[in-house]
Task: structure prediction
Amino acid sequence: MREKHMTYAGAGVDINKLESIKSGIIKKGLKYRRSGFGAPMGGIGAYAGLIDMGEFALAMTTDGVGTKLIIADAMKKWDTVGIDCIAMNVNDLYVMGVEPLAFVDYISIEKPDDELIRQVMVGLDEGARQANVTIVGGETAALPDIIKGFDLAGTAVGYVGKNEVVTGESIRPGDVVIGLPSSGIHSNGYSLVRKVIEKCGLKYADPLPYDKTKTIGAELLKPTRIYSEVVPIFRKYPVKGMAHITGGGLMNLRRITDYGFEFTDPMPVPQVFTWLQKLGGIDDKEMYRTFNMGMGYVIITDKESAGAIVKMTDGKIAGSIVQEGCTVRGVTMW
Result:
């Protein structure tokens, strides 16, 4: 059975409503700001918060793995979700020209489970290795009256020279957009992914239809890519802006500039996305506004630097900055 015209909002996640809450209720409610040493730099809403530490800025960000954890529970396979947790945080630091330094995790669980925690630690340790950060602490809480299963989140801190923060302010039409490939779905859009799988009567232990050597669950649990290779890039070349393509898909690009994007040669779309799209009857615009669609990270630079940056990555020139709007091979996304 194939569901028709499924959407992220229909699966319970309304991106527009969430953005309205962030830009309205949250920003208006948080009024106090420290002054003097340790004062904040900039407002709320960037990928990471910056704190004035003299010559440097301390950067902080926090995020979790989300409902991908439900699939991990169903498969009894928790050894990669720690990578996801660290990736979702450090990737948000990289986009501002920040090098991550340390991480703390928070695990809330319905009831103690030694094997679950052991596997989560395996993933956290591997994520820390990939990102070159130290896990300096954390918290594990048993909350049987609140939590069903478990939740995993964390906070990453890093540093950047105050004059080296990548803000997107210098982006102009004509600049080049370089896309870096994702490892799969990463850690966003899983409320819609799960609805598609479940409403079509499939199970996570079922063989993947287009690759029967693995299960559906194994494909969906591929860990989020950690883009640590961008650190030497933004230190060497004039990077004007970067974006981590997470929940909201290409809508994330609005966070770095008011200019538009024209993707004439987007990254190849992994088969997992085309399979889910066909299974759920999801239109192209909804897919690109929900998932990374094969492009998990974006670097914006001038034409002169683009070729050298591409050579340092496994990415490619995917498009350019335009005056307004966003198109993928001529199809309007916003």
Observations:
- The CA atoms of residues 87 and 226 lie 5 Å apart.
- The radius of gyration is 20 Å.
- The first helix runs from residue 15 to 29.
- The mean pLDDT is 94.
